[in-house]
Fold:
Amino acid sequence: MTSSATPASVGVFQSDGHCEWAYVEEGLRTGEGLLAAVATGLKAVTTDGHRGPASPDLIMLDQGPGQFTGLRAGIGIAQGLAMGWNIPVLAMDSASIMVWAAWEALEKTRHSDDVSGSDREASGALLSDALPALHWITVRDARLGAFYVAEFGSLEGLFESEGASVQTLGPERLLDIVKNRLTLNPHRGSIVIVSDPSSQARLAEFNGFDDVSRAKPVWMQPRASDLLGALARLGLAKLRRGAQARQAQQLEANYVRNDVAMDLNAQRAYRRAQGDLTKI
Structure:
């Protein structure tokens, strides 16, 4: 289950990573349909496929960072279900899940003759057999003029990360980091920036973004269904490498910055300073 970004999603997976059933919310809801979807999904699996048990063996959860309300909903639902079913929870940071989803998409593109159009163009720099060492940067809008940012020098970092590598950075600092990485890795396609449409649009509002775009990093925007599958398959890979699931009461959301949940007065002050009161 993942609810750190909109739309939230939940799925039922086999132990080999195959998805038997999945649900992706519509619109701008923040996880409110996940609980009902879990019941629907398990019923669909046990009645139609009759392959699985009435309850799962493990819950895999995106623990953030991400949107505050969605994370609270996801954590609360996961805790309640884990306690009711008496099963453990494997929680992973959203940055690792984003990178794994992007990597899966690139691998699919490299090995598929049917990929064309924007998908092939987006990853065209990575289609050769001799690939450069990739450097991964994840960017997600943290609101209030900041971004959640994480860097991974290799995929191996995903198995070590527990979210501590995620920082909250302003746009200027983020652009400095990206420019520095592009200088150190001049080969086109050596830098992969994983984000989402709204975060990339927000970043484009700041000066300097055009220079970064002209440097030709590879931009990836995994869909909600991609993130859900990546969550399950990365979790299974981590388990094989010795990762330990937790009990429900041990779960904590990875908010990174507590001021994301600013009170209404602070939000008004921030937006007034930006000259925009229309979204309050």
In short: The CA atoms of residues 241 and 253 lie 23 Å apart. The longest helix spans residues 68-85.
